[in-house]
Design brief:
- By secondary structure, this protein is mainly alpha-helical.
- The protein is built from ten helices and no strands.
- The protein has two domains: 43 residues, Homeodomain-like (Arc Repressor Mutant, subunit A, Orthogonal Bundle); 143 residues, Tetracycline Repressor, domain 2.
Amino acid sequence: MSTAPRLAERGGAADARLLAIATDHVRRFSSKRLTIVAVAEEAGMTHANVYRYFASKEALLDAVVGAALKPIEMLLSDIASAPDPVDDKLERMVLALARAYRDLFESDRAVFDLFAAAVEGNRGVARRHRGRVRTFVARVLDEGIAVGAFEPRDREAALALLIDAFHRYTHPSSIRLDGAQPRGPRELRLSNLVRVAVRGLTSGTI
């Protein structure tokens, strides 16, 4: 039975199929060896038709990265919306982000490497993801300020400090460098860092 998409497929269905094929090719052959022609052939399309959905190979690879990051962003959104105390929520959010990146590194190295390249190249997909992560952290910070749990001297400076502090544990380069280390000690250091930051937010020292 042919796996080619029906001609009636439009928009989301065709996008999803092309994305699934591209992700599989990245895993099997690497992003460098992926070609639009090969993706189109497996999808039962002409390569010109693929360009109707993705303007370039680069755009298709960005979509692969974006799809891998979407569940992480949804997880952070859920944590930010939870009714937990803000100090617990902040710690849970940062640990969840670090764990999710480590999971991607360990279980899907080819896609993780593509994500890392997007971060290192400051590509749009990486900038958008970074902006969303910052937004979720800001939501928890603002909630803490609203309920009187956090009393930063300068809200923007406090947010920047939080992002900078967690950078060591959430940047793809750091994930790679620590890839051979056990998770436990690394997560303990990160938890301690979050608690130091929370103390600074509650005391108004940052």
